[in-house]
Amino acid sequence: MKRPAGKVQRRRTLSEVAWTTFQTARGWMGIAASPAGLVRVVLPQAAEAQVAEELQAEFGPPTPEEALPSALRDLRARLIAYFQGQAVAFDDPLDPSLGTPFYRRVWEELRTVPRGRVVTYAELARRAGKPRAARAVGQAMARNPCPVVVPCHRVVGSDGSLVGYGGGIDLKAHMLGLEGVLLPL
User: Fold this and answer.
1) Which end of the chain, N or C, is more open, meaning fewer C-beta atoms within 10 Å of its C-beta?
2) Angle at CA 176, nearest 5°, toward 172 and 181?
């Protein structure tokens, strides 16, 4: 999910955020975390430089490998396994500074949708306690800073169609396929 230029917000001081890049079967990814939790997941890109540039612009210089918290190293390993088709859990804490209270409620509800299942924007709005807020749920998905961990790829249109995804519809279809979701032809 690419952030618009000029809209970068630093949630924590640069020294508090550790980040790393790594290669998966789908491309280069990046993750960043503060002591309070995960703050960013960069979806697979073709080149490591793209990912590093995005994270460095938001959080400053990269973290040396030996200084990475074990939680980040563990998440990196699980994301690599995920893109190899393995079933892994993403129960990592999110930094509480992320998003509005409504967005956080939507993201937490979304995290209860099991692997291999999908939910509509309307259903997710209902689960979050705002049954008429399907469009607001769409905004929460668009502003999700931690895709995969907060599985916005599992949200589909009311007719079951694959709509909107920061990494593109092809990546969304690929991820749902890895999870065993049968997609319409």
Assistant:
1) C
2) 145
